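pasting for ref
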Amino acid sequence: MKITVDMNLCESHGQCVFAAPEVFSFDDDDYLVYDATPDPALYDKVVKAAAVCPVRAILVEGTP
């Protein structure tokens, strides 16, 4: 699985952080940071995080 976030679309709503805190977080300057190749066991959480993004900035490629 590979995650890509379009940072030009991302508006830092943080829904992904709530859905998959193991993968998504904010740095000290409130910019989104994420693990582009998370543990496959987190696949369901990552897919949910992508689905709840209000601007659809998260792309999940591949399967667990």
